[in-house]
Amino acid sequence: MPFAYLLTPASLAQSALFAGYYAYLNINVCSYRRLSGVAIGDGLTIGVSMPAAAKTDKEKQVAARGLARAFKAQGDFWSQTPFALIFLSISELNGLPYKWVHIIGSTLFLSRVLASQLALLDTDRKEAVAQDEVKRYRAAEGGARAVTGVIMLGVGFYNLRLGWKPLKDFLSF
């Protein structure tokens, strides 16, 4: 049994959820790459192309827009998740009860999934989605990002509170 498992079992269980969802986002990007024929890049800027599974130019354009959204969703998820999981694991190492690790980790997971799923929505097509709906989607996406920020600040302050006295002793003030 690995040593880290003994120290952070709740964070380990939470990380499996994040890894599974990231794999889903990665498969989503790969499928849009195959459809659009874009090997490198986000599909909207110049990139390296490959043979596309889509037959018509219209299908390729739709797939390229889908690739850009999938790329954005994957990037948003990837940019926030590692640091939040690291901070959560450090909090667990410092004695945060397992119950709170699971509550915070589950809230973080749901907020990141919500933000990623909202980023995947096709809000570029005006005929498909009303503008007030687009505003609600973007507000919800921003709210999910704010939840992630609050969680990161919360576990950061928890760790700072525990480490403040040793830090003061080290700095001799």
How would you characterize the overall build of this protein?
The protein is 77% helix and 3% strand. It has five helices and two strands. A two-stranded antiparallel sheet has the order 1-2. The protein has one domain: Membrane associated eicosanoid/glutathione metabolism-like domain (Four Helix Bundle (Hemerythrin (Met), subunit A)), CATH 1.20.120. It has helices spanning 3-7, 9-36, 57-93, 98-120, 131-171, and strands at 38-40, 48-49. The protein is elongated and about 65 Å long. Strand 1 and strand 2 form a beta hairpin. With 173 residues, it is mainly α. Helix 3 (57-93) runs parallel beside helix 5 (131-171). Its main location: membrane. Keywords: Membrane, Transmembrane, Transmembrane helix. It is found in: Membrane.
- Number of separate domains: 1
Largest sheet: 2 strands, antiparallel
The general outline is elongated
Radius of gyration: 20 Å
CATH fold title: Four Helix Bundle (Hemerythrin (Met), subunit A)
Rounded to the nearest angstrom, the distance between the terminal CA atoms is 42 Å
Strand order of the largest sheet: 1-2
Poorly predicted regions: none
Q: What's the CATH C level?
A: Mainly Alpha
Strand fraction equals under 5%
Arithmetic mean of pLDDT: 80
* H/E element order: HHEEHHH
Q: What would you say the CATH architecture is? A: Up-down Bundle
Helix content: over 70%
* Category by helix and strand content: mainly alpha
